Amino acid sequence: MSTRPHTPPAGDNLVIRGFSKSFNGIRVLDGVDLTLGYGEVHGLLGQNGSGKSTLIKCLNGAYQPDTGDLLVGGRELPLPLPAGEFQNLGLSFVHQDLGLIPELSVLENLKLVDLSRSRTWRIDWRSERRRTAAVLEQYGLGDLDPDRPVSALSPTERALLAIVRAVEAVRASANHGVLVLDEPTVFLPREGVERLFGLVRDVSAHGTSVLFVSHDIDEVREVTDRVTVLRDGRTAGTAVTEDCTETTLVEMIVGRSLERAAERSAVARVSTEVVLTAQSLITPGLRGIDFALRGGEILGVTGLAGSGFDDVPYALFGAMAGTEGSLSTTDDRPALDLSAVTPIALLERGIALVPGDRQHDGAAMDLSVGDNITMQVLDDYRPWLLRRGEMDARSAELVREYDVRPADSRAVYGSLSGGNQQKALLAKWMQTDPRVLLLHEPTQGVDVGAREQIFAVLREAADSGMAVVCASSDAEQLARICGRVLILSRGVIGAELVGADLSKDRILETIYNSAPVAAVAS
C-alpha cells in the first residue's frame, strides 16, 4: 500500500466528466468519469479494450472526445483544445516507449522540453550541463552523466529519465500539473520499479497529480492512493486503494465474482495413466531431460533465461531444429524419434501447441477470427467443397464460448487485443481435441480478465482428462494452475515441486538455487 507521509492539498486538480468517444459507430468510451486530487497518485486499471488507451489519447490531444467536460486546476476548458494546449496546461505523459531519442545525450533529451517552449536557438551548453546535473541530483539521479548517450543507459535509468523530463515539463507550466504514466514499469526489474515508485512519491509530495496506468494490480496497490477501473468503455468504479484486495480489484475489472476453489485441486484430478513420456530430450538449450506426463495433469516448466525451459513445448511438437530424443504416447504405436518427426505426425498423436509468439507463429493476422479458429479442422467441413455456412456457425459459437471480443467471428484477428487473440488461439487448438496441450507463456501480454479466463479453460481441460504442459516464466501463474512444476537449470532438470511447495515464493527461490535431479510422473 501507499504510505506517503504528506497530506495532499484540498480539491481536484483534474476532473473528467462524461467522456464519450466512438469510432465507426462503435462506442469505446461511454460516459467515463475520473478525478485526481492535488498530490494524488491515482491508478487506472482495466482489461485490454476497456478504453484506457482511448482515454489517455483524449487527454494528450491525439483524440477529441465526442462529449464530456474537462477541468484542470479548477478551470473548465472548452473542447476541442488546440494541439499542444494540454502541455501548456501542465499535462505531461510517459508512455511505454518512453519517447526518448537513443542517439542523443541525457542533456539533449532533457533540453527538448525547453526547445519546444523557447524561441531562442542559441544554447549555452556549459551552463546547460550544470543545470542538467543539478536537476538530475534533485531527483536522485546524480550518478548520470549529462553527456552520456541515452542508448548507453539501463532500462531503469531510461524510465527514470523519461519521468524527470515529464515532471520538468509539468513544472514549466503555471499549474501544479498532472503526470500520466502509461505502463511505465513493463520493462523494469524489481529494483527499477522501486526506484520509479520512490520518484513518483517525491513528485506527488509537491502537489503534482499522477495517473498511474497499469495491468499490474500489485503495483497499483503499492503506489496509489485511489484506483479507478474501466470496463467496456465505462467507469466500473473508483475506490480507496488501501480498502481493496487483489480479488476485489480483479472482480471489478472482469465484472463478476471469481471462482478459485478449484485451483489447488490440480493434483487430486490427475489419473494414473501416463499419456506422454519424453526421454533424452536434447535441443540447443536442453542437455537430455526425461519426464512423464499423466492424464489430467497440468505440468509447469520454468527456469531462468537460458535454462532451456522454453524449448520444451517446441521440442515436444517437432517444431525446433536440432531436437533429439524420443517421445512415447499411450497407444500401441512405436516411440517417435524427435530428430525426424514433424508437427503433423504429433498432431496425429493428439498433441497440440499454443506458441508464445501468437502474432508470428500462432495465427494469420490478416485473416478473420473465424478463419483462424477453423484452420486446423477444415477436413471436418468437406470432403468436396467447404461447407462455409457450417464453418461460420461453428466459429461464431466458439467466439461466444471463449468470450472473444468483439464477439464477431468476421473481425480481423490482428485487430484484437492480446488477451482476445490468445483466447481465439485456445479455441483453435481445443477444437482438435488434443490429449496433450503444450503452451509457451500463455498469458504473456494478456490483461487480468483474459488471464482468469485462460486459467479456467486450462483447468476445465485438465478436469476432462487432458494433459497440459505450460512453459512459463510467471511463477505466480504456475503456482495457481499447476499440480507439478519442473525447474530447469543449464539445460537439465534442477528441481521438481509438488503440493505444498507450489507457491510463487518457493518456485522463485528454487529457480535461483536449483541443482540437477531426475524427474518422473508423480
Keywords:
32% helix, globular, Rossmann fold, alpha/beta, 522 residues, 6-stranded mixed beta sheet, disordered N terminus
Map the helices and strands.
Blueprint lengths: L11 E12 L2 E12 L3 E5 L6 H8 L7 E6 L2 E3 L7 H4 L2 E4 L11 H10 L9 H14 L16 H17 L6 E5 L7 H16 L3 E5 L3 H7 L2 E6 L2 E7 L5 H9 L19 E9 L4 E8 L3 E6 L8 H5 L7 E6 L6 E2 L5 H6 L2 E4 L3 H5 L6 H6 L13 H14 L16 H13 L5 E5 L7 H16 L3 E5 L3 H7 L2 E6 L2 E7 L5 H8 L11
Helix pairs in contact: 3-5, 5-6, 14-15, 16-17
The top-level CATH class of the largest domain is Alpha Beta
Low-pLDDT regions: 1-6, 260-266
Q: In CATH, what is the homologous superfamily of the largest domain?
A: P-loop containing nucleotide triphosphate hydrolases
CATH topology of the largest domain: Rossmann fold
Instruction: Note the gap between the termini.
Output: 40 Å
Averaged pLDDT:
85
Largest sheet: 6 strands, mixed
Rough outline: globular
Tally the helices.
17
What percentage of amino acids are in beta strands?
A: 15-25%
- Helix-and-strand structural type: alpha/beta
Strand order of the largest sheet: 6-7-8-3-9-10
Helix content: 25-40%
